[in-house]
Amino acid sequence: SLLPLITDHPLGFSDSMLSFCLQKKPLSAVIKEVCDGWNLPGPENYALQYTDGVQMYITESVSIYLLMSDSDAGVRCDSLKELAGVSTDMTFAQEFISRNGHLLLVKIVEDSTDNVIMTHTLKAFMELMYHGIVSWENLSTVFIKKIASFVNAKPTDASIQQVSLDILENMVLSSQSLFLQVKHEITMERLIAHLQVTNQQIQTKAMALLMALLQTAGDSDKQNIIHSSGSVQDEMAHHLYVLQSVTLNHQELRMRTPLDCYSQEQRDILHGLRQAAFETESENSLSNERRRSLCAKEFKKLGFSNNSNPGQDLVRTPPGLLALDTMFYFATRYPDAYSRFVLENSSREDKHECPFARSSIQLTLILCEILRIGEPPSETGSDYHPIFFSQDRLMEELFCVCIQLLNKTWKEMRATQEDFDKVMQVVREQITRTLSSKPTSLELFKNKVNALNYSEILKLRQTERLHQEEILAPPVLELKERLKPELLELIRQQRLNRLCQGTMFRKISSRRRQDKLWYCRLSPNHKMLHYGDVEEDSDNPTIETLQEKIPVADIKALLTGKDCPHMKENKGKQNKVLDLAFSITYDVEEYSLNFIAPSRTDFCLWTDGLSVLLGRDMSSETMRSELDILLSMEIKLRLLDLENVPIPDSAPSVPKPPSNYNFCYDFSQTEQ
């Protein structure tokens, strides 16, 4: 009943004949013979070539027959491999799933122990599920446990683990019930272990699954993630950045919540700060008026502006209750440092004391701004702090280091209350400069930020100011304009060379990013764009292996972002890759080649290179950055001999010509 197109066709194939053929020949050969019997030309790409779908149905029927039969393992493996290839076609997938073919794949996953068969089965299953025809919620518990076991197992076949991580990520994002099952089955230690392997694909898939778990759960314990010392790829860096943003944004609620003066718990924390700083006599024996006076005096020493009602200082949001949390953490985690800070400043003259509470509130706000707490993660962001992945409670620990830095800087600047804003600007600069060096641990951050004292900040500012004045001098600006054409030509040649090397792109479905890859490169003579599908392990395929090509002369326009055809078709679903999308239209406007760049850098390189081919100006931010760097280097080299020589704003005046030119020497007389 599963083979109507085979058993009823004109050649009269029977089940036994088909079984015999499949024992002797591969699936593609059997399909070719059947198609030849029907006088259908061309054996290539059966599932995609014919609109009538006849050959596709044959492939589907034969595939199902093979999956159900007890055929040779090698033949079965070949069938599954071909099935994974043809499952990318929507029409084939609909027919295959309508005949419960996907359930047969689930059954194979549940029962099979052969790694090769398992790899092809999972890939075929994933290709079918990408189309969104059936729900993920229909999967059995046995299937979920089997997939999770591949992730939890010790290092095994990388292909199986990669696809398994991909499947689990889709389950987590599809429904809350599947999220709970996956969360229950996955061992977090093994998931984090996948982040430490050298295989970048497994690293990326593991991070994607971890992000899906965090985003779906809304709250999760942050684990200490140790990543390799090698360079992190753009997609991996983006996942690390998103993980950092999601985790730090858990502080947003406290940051935007003002202190409630009627909350007994919050009042107790305030009084706990006061009592931890000052050893006072028993307050129970004091009268109410005497107790209030004592509390007001001590809150003033702590640096609160409103000493009679210190809670008013924490009503402003941000930083709100987060400032109270950081102060209390410092007082309880490092009591000696806290007491030393408060007592040292309370013993100074009033105008020279560094107010702890006021400084803490402002410092907490600065850290929130630097760490971007409260900002949703960018779709293309990749700027993460390695220190985040080596330190629990990063916000609080950074505060403890920086509040002591603030006190040190205050003394170095010999600041008074009027200099409060200046001190905070210097502290912000110290923190920002230190974090920009990407310290990998809190201890390293502490050493670097303390070494960057006030005198070092002044030196850096002076150097930057002199450099700015130097590069803005009119003669230097004129020299820059003369150098620009030569450097722009250098960048153009680099872009064209990069297009000649080619880039691997990923195909995008309406549901999510797929693992199907294609490659595109420019011919050495810059006249043809060659492209074609490739396998994942392909390394810089040659032009001869890329089947399709487009003459550069036929390219009409370059489109980017929301103007691209493949972005217009799925506006709501493609926001995540909008900044990486570009297309070229050719021949006539209906035809276009659509790209999703692997990274923002690749996007800039390709759009610049295509602009050069079309005779247009390059306009990417990468080009502007590179031009600035090249100009700066060239200017410094040209001005190397003029170090410490003042450059005038205008050129020296040309002297007047001499009254006569009778001053040449007559060599002829000497020769005689």
TrEMBL record:
One Pfam family, short name: ELMO_CED12
Domain of life: Eukaryota
Biological process per Gene Ontology, one example term: apoptotic process
Gene3D superfamilies the UniProt entry points to: 6.10.250.810, Leucine-rich Repeat Variant, Pleckstrin-homology domain (PH domain)/Phosphotyrosine-binding domain (PTB)
PROSITE patterns hit by this protein: ELMO, PH_DOMAIN
Keyword annotations: Apoptosis, Phagocytosis, SH3-binding
InterPro entries on file: ARM-like, ARM-type_fold, ELMO_ARM, ELMO_dom, ELMO_domain-containing, PH-like_dom_sf, PH_domain
Annotated GO MF terms: SH3 domain binding
Domain (ELMO) ranges: 265-435
Boundaries of every PH domain copy: 497-615
Role played: Involved in cytoskeletal rearrangements required for phagocytosis of apoptotic cells and cell motility. Acts in association with DOCK1 and CRK. Was initially proposed to be required in complex with DOCK1 to activate Rac Rho small GTPases. May enhance the guanine nucleotide exchange factor (GEF) activity of DOCK1.
Protein name: ELMO domain-containing protein
Record organism: Amphiprion ocellaris
Lineage of the organism: Eukaryota, Metazoa, Chordata, Craniata, Vertebrata
